[in-house]
């Protein structure tokens, strides 16, 4: 069929969906109707591939990967899927039939509120790579009705408002009311004798909620694979209590329904209260229980016994949130399917693998035994038995070290009885991996040292990666086109081919085109922040970006200290007249209960206002904060950035993926030797990376004797900044407003070593400015960053998981239902 006919067919499809799916004509159709019609037209291309992919998996009885995560930050799907179908030009041409520009159409999609930060963005990249590499993969999570929150800035303060992302529905999701599972809570555990005179445990008198499935297609790039993301929504087991209804108490009549369905209402409830903690554990068990029942249903279609289960099922725990899956699978195998404990345990441990994402003590999840017993009494019994048997193993393995049992215990009793979910995940999995080389070394040598000594072969490293389809092809079409003109388009399937760009790094014509594309991306960002937030951004000056979740270890404070230093130098004439002007851009959310981080956001706005008010400072320096950071904002900010701030305290960031996205889009990095920064620097070359700061082992050695005052006393600029913060220079309306930040440095001991790294950071920022003056040198360094970051593809990460952890094969569905196995 010719291009003309294809275009006509696509236009007909768009109009048919407008008329017959939305029941609108061009007189009554809203822009959102036109967007929805376009989504349905894209779904038409996906549906047959999706069905054929799933049929292929069944036909070959493929081993499947199940990726369990409480977060999936998918971003907008419409343009992404059109690119993956390689129909961008066709849809752009056909959209004129709807009388709306294509670029306006794709802007109508709301980001799915299914995640908070890096954990969810990584999970989305991994789903993309599994589909693009044709691995039989499924994502499982929760269909949150509300996202974490919508961040507004009022008088410089973060204000949280509901993120009602499903307000207009979601044309990408497929409700599956027939896929419904009962999930139980509370109750009691009885010992009963079954008909075979065997003693077994019965979980009885429970409260129940239904889990209903909603499916999202996960479309591979330029292939016929469509995998599935299945999200669970909580539904009440009954509509309401007729006893209350008939007596006229209508509120009580629907109370149970409202309480049950609150489980999937909002992402990550505030867990400062007991009720919040219980709801979060409910969320974790809710999605895990429904998921495992769904996995067992699928497995039992083809298999009557469980001895082949680990050969057909690989379950990846994305951090500790889904770790309750380990005792839940044991319960399903032992209680519901009559397996002996040892057999069930062998099946379980051969099925699960666990990715650790953090070394922060507060993020290594624990639950009090009291809450666990109240909510999941049978699971606490199973965890106790797992721990008892594990302690026997420890005693045999280390007979002369009785203290090791305490250090390894899943159930610890240091003043309160708690369940250590990371330890449970390690004991119940066949493989544990970190997400960068440094992080994996730290969990082996420090955080889980005793576990590593017990099972050295259990621990591996899989450095994170990002999908080039979304983070270069979609986010940065200008750069993508430049790369394709130079080396073709196969790099989108094999990012290592970016190495072929290296000779172009010294090509002056290529350099100029590269810089022109960066400038156009800055103009696009300028227009976006002006239109969306009424912020002003000058595209003519250096763009210095730190965009990530706010946490003290990520050290947004260090970046602010630099901004204040530049301001103080500018207003006192202590700068070179040809100082490189720069815009310092922040974006990110603070957890609602994180007082200091919310105060840091206020400080950014207060410093920005002072800079803007001073005529000498505002000529050379701009500080802006882009609210409500999301995948969509990231896709606009990252391609425009020229300097990437990756300044976390060495030894604290597990990996990071933002650092990879910035480097792949031609931003140079100023950073510490932390997380994947180390590997980025190794790949791009030390001369193309602005390194500063103490290393992880130096921080560990310094921690016991660290005195931040010695760094303050020896640095006049730092002393001035502390004085300004203490005396209300940046908050004349409330002179004590930022005293808590001073206390973080001086009263609480500066536990993230901001003051220790300040001098080195400022000096390296001066090197950045000097380098930026030489446009050719800067372009060369930036192009080499792009060319040498091919390692940081999520395809490479997924291939490592597939070969070394999951033991799965690629199943390539072809048109007509045939397939290839590799």
TrEMBL record:
For the protein in the UniProt heading, the enzyme class is: transferase
- What EC numbers are recorded for this enzyme? 2.4.1.1
Show the catalytic activity.
[(1->4)-alpha-D-glucosyl](n) + phosphate = [(1->4)-alpha-D-glucosyl](n-1) + alpha-D-glucose 1-phosphate
Cofactor names: pyridoxal 5'-phosphate
Q: What does the record give under GO molecular function?
A: 1,4-alpha-oligoglucan phosphorylase activity
Q: Does the keyword Glycosyltransferase apply?
A: yes
Q: Which domain of life is it from?
A: Bacteria
Is Lyase a UniProt keyword of this protein? no
User: What are the UniProt keywords, alphabetically?
Assistant: Carbohydrate metabolism, Glycosyltransferase, Pyridoxal phosphate, Transferase
Which PROSITE patterns does the protein's record reference? PHOSPHORYLASE
Q: Which SUPFAM superfamilies match?
A: UDP-Glycosyltransferase/glycogen phosphorylase
| Protein family (similarity comment) | Belongs to the glycogen phosphorylase family.
* Function, in words: Phosphorylase is an important allosteric enzyme in carbohydrate metabolism. Enzymes from different sources differ in their regulatory mechanisms and in their natural substrates. However, all known phosphorylases share catalytic and structural properties.
Name used for this protein in its record:
Alpha-1,4 glucan phosphorylase
